[in-house]
Fold this protein.
Amino acid sequence: MKAQIKSYFNRYVDFNDEEIDAIYSKLEEKTFQKKEFLLKENMICRHNYFILKGIVRLFYIDSKGHEKITLFAIDNWWVTNMESFIKETPSTQYLQAVEDITVLSLSKTTLETLYIEHPKLERLFRIIAENMLIANLRKSDLFLQMKSKERYTFFVEHLSAFAQRVPQYMIASYLEITPEYLSELRRNRH
Amino acid sequence: MKAQIKSYFNRYVDFNDEEIDAIYSKLEEKTFQKKEFLLKENMICRHNYFILKGIVRLFYIDSKGHEKITLFAIDNWWVTNMESFIKETPSTQYLQAVEDITVLSLSKTTLETLYIEHPKLERLFRIIAENMLIANLRKSDLFLQMKSKERYTFFVEHLSAFAQRVPQYMIASYLEITPEYLSELRRNRH
DNA sequence: CGCGACGTTGATTTGCCTCAACGATTGTGG
DNA sequence: CCACAATCGTTGAGGCAAATCAACGTCGCG
């Protein structure tokens, strides 16, 4: 477990073993079962989760009562409701385990003290924020440019890790397509 | 000019006058005329621009040859092509002055050295990245949930600074509407 | 003045949604 | 271990938001 996060951290910033130990000791390993919630609507998201194993989804309920998935996350990703976590405002979204998962939980208050004790961590999370931003910009661009069918083929080709482990109706939701129409798209190609 | 950026910096992190001076001295004031480009497609974006005055747009050319605006920026915003700037990859987008503008230009290499000399700046740009991320997440959510007409009224109500100074076809492009349909929407409400 | 940039209108088309119904598969309690 | 209920995916009919295409009006500017 420690090796996994150490290798992740050192991908972006060099930490020595003592630093890793100090930071790692502040993280709390937790498990959640399939369908269990890490966060519900109206709660303030106090934690950032590093996924050791499993898949998680972030979604909200739209005006018609339908779930709309805004993010999937998998092994070695940090996941939280960014807006709620950063601004400490009530979440409009749910964070839920799609499979049984294991995560390392980092609380906001712990993170703030760690920033002061270990300035390098500030750099790490600046880089992480930048990477998340770029990922989100790319996703927006994708949705701007592509029709439903293209989005689906893109998903299957570039996000196959999810495509194989997530039910179809969740893929449809993430791709902003109705399950019915996704079904039609799948029929119309071989 | 210095006062403007000082007040901006101190909104997020406390810098003393010496620090502001040191950082400010590394920024280069530049002006661009209306329609002048700060960045063109295929170039690597080496600068991050702090807008002192004016409006800038970020856009790409889609497969049909139409301009698609992904971002407007105005006084006291940082603007760049994040992906190109961070990853040092060729830009797929153009950055262009919508009006005559004045900016403070900060090069990537300068920023990297400043991060080391002034660790507080790392914190500032972590916070800026987080804020940009949140703004982008909000924008995506908006587009996910709203129909064209709602997007337009939202734009007029919440981004009136732009609505008044930007031609209609650019607003249409930003809102992912054809100019024709936007025109129709405007007709159908008084 | 004349040209190009910008906005408007109307006719037609289309991508995708809604609703309703029905198989197939999974899982759970008796 | 079977029965019945959810859950999940598929089909088809009908409808609507918004795009496309083509043409025309208008204004500002060189």
User: Anything to note?
Assistant: Residues 119-145 of chain B form the longest helix (27 residues). The domain at 2-117 of chain B is CATH 2.60.120.10 (Jelly Rolls). The CA atoms of residues 14 and 129 of chain B lie 18 Å apart.
